[in-house]
Write a structure and sequence with these properties.
single chain; mainly beta; three-stranded antiparallel beta sheet; two-stranded antiparallel ribbon; about 25% strand; globular
Length: about 90
């Protein structure tokens, strides 16, 4: 996930990059632990079956959620989400 805000120079910046994050639960499998911080670590990998520890993955939940602490009041201009690829996708 990328949360953008505009800096004083007018450039969009990822304000969520490497900030503390949490999710409803964390799935662990043969490909690693898919913790919340993988959503905002800067990686653009979308297939955790190919790139170990590259994507967030929670356990099945009725109301899933993910949260990030931007650590200060921030006006977000754009949110960019990328879905994880399904098993077998290239």
């Amino acid at each position: 996930m990328i949360l953008f805000c505009v800096g004083p120079d007018g450039i969009l910046r990822n304000v969520a990059l490497n900030k503390p994050s949490w999710q409803v639960s964390t799935r662990t499998d043969a490909y690693g632990e898919h913790s919340a911080n993988l959503a905002n670590d800067g990686s653009r990998q979308t297939n955790h079956y190919v790139h170990v520890n590259s994507c967030v993955h929670s356990l099945r939940a009725t109301n899933p959620w993910w949260a990030v602490d931007l650590e200060k009041r921030t006006e977000v201009k754009k949110v960019q989400l990328t879905n994880r690829k399904r098993a077998g996708s290239s």
